Structures are given as C-alpha cells and as structure tokens.
Amino acid sequence: MFDYQVSKQPHFENACRVFASRHNLRELADSVGMNQQTLRNKLNPEQVHQLTAMDIVVLTDVTEDAALIDGLLAQMKCGPAVPVNEAKAERVAHYVLQATAEIGKVAAAAVSGKKMTPSCKSAFMENVNAGIRCLSLIGLSIHARVQSNPALANTVDALSGISASFGIS
User: Fold this and answer.
1) How many other C-beta atoms are found inside a 10 Å radius of the C-beta of residue 71?
2) A Pfam family matched by this chain, by name (predicted)?
3) pTM score, two decimals?
4) How does pLDDT run across 104-159, given as a tens digit for each residue?
5) DSSP output for 112-133
6) What's the CA angle centered on 71, arms 67 and 74, to 5 degrees?
7) Which class for 102: exposed (0-12), middle (13-18), buried (19 or more C-beta within 10 A)?
C-alpha cells in the first residue's frame, strides 16, 4: 500500500547532531531519567548506542523539538511531523502569518545565491518543515471548525456533492 524508501542521505544523523547542539544534554538527560553520557552517545551517530523509538518520543515530548522525528521521517523520504493537538481554530491567523514568514525565509534563501553550507541547508530545511507544519495546522483547524458546526458541515457536504455531480473539482 505504501512505498516507503530509505534515503541514502544521513538525515537522521544530521537531526541527531542538530538536536544535541540545541539542548543542554546534561539537564535533558536528568529530566528524562537517562544517564548523561548515554544520551550523548545515542545522539552521536559515530557511537554504537542508538536512540530507541521510545527515546525519540520522550525527548520530543520533553523538549517540544520535532527535529528527531523530522529527521527520521526525512530518512524514510516522508514529510515533517505535524502536532495535531496544536491545531486550534482560533489560531488560524497566527498559523497563516507563521507559514507566510517561513515561506518568505525559504524564498529569500533560494534567491540569495549563497553557497549552501550544511548549517544553511539545515536552517533552510527547518524553514520548509515549519512552513509545511503551519499549513497543515491551518487545514486541520479549518476542518475542525467546519466539523464543529453541524449546519456548516452539512452545507459543505451538500456543496461538495453538487460540485461532484457537475464534474467540478
């Protein structure tokens, strides 16, 4: 049904490095109940120790940093993670502005003509992922708004049915 492929690029390894550079690993290890050196080793791709799925879940939950999940998904040639629980109908304007800002950063980097260093590429991909995340949250919020109002949901369903019968997409 799905054709997941594993990328030859070291997306997850890069995500581990970025994640480690963003956080105080000593404090983070203490907060998740892990030995500090073990956490350092698990985030270092050159070490034998590797993060487990539950390690990634706990670290993402505690830090609210999706870098590890996004890296894992990129390794499987998938898009970034979208925290569905963040979708709030009253925040649609915020999501639109944030998506616009992130897409603006992507556009600026694309036309700058600068050499794409590893750190520039990492920042570029973070902007792309943040933009996708915000656009997804807009869609989820609008969907929730429509579904929470039965009259509006019925109207949308009726219009969808009418447009389908006329062959309008």
Assistant:
1) 22
2) Phage_CP76
3) 0.70
4) 999 999 898 888 888 888 888 889 999 999 999 998 888 877 777 776 666 656 66
5) H-----HHHHHHHHHHHHHHHH
6) 135
7) buried
Contact criterion met (CB below 8 Å) for 60 and 68: yes
Counted residue by residue, the chain has a size of 169
Query: Tell me: the pLDDT tens digits for 152-162?
Result: 666 656 666 66
Quote the crossing angle between the two packed helices 118-148 and 92-112, to the nearest 10°. 150
Q: Give me the sign of the Cα torsion angle 28, 22, 65, 67.
A: negative
Q: How many angstroms from the chain centroid is the CA of residue 154?
A: 32
Residue listed under structure tokens 């049904």: 1
User: From residue 99, how far is each of 59, 93, 109, 113, 123 by CA, in Å?
Assistant: 25, 10, 15, 23, 15
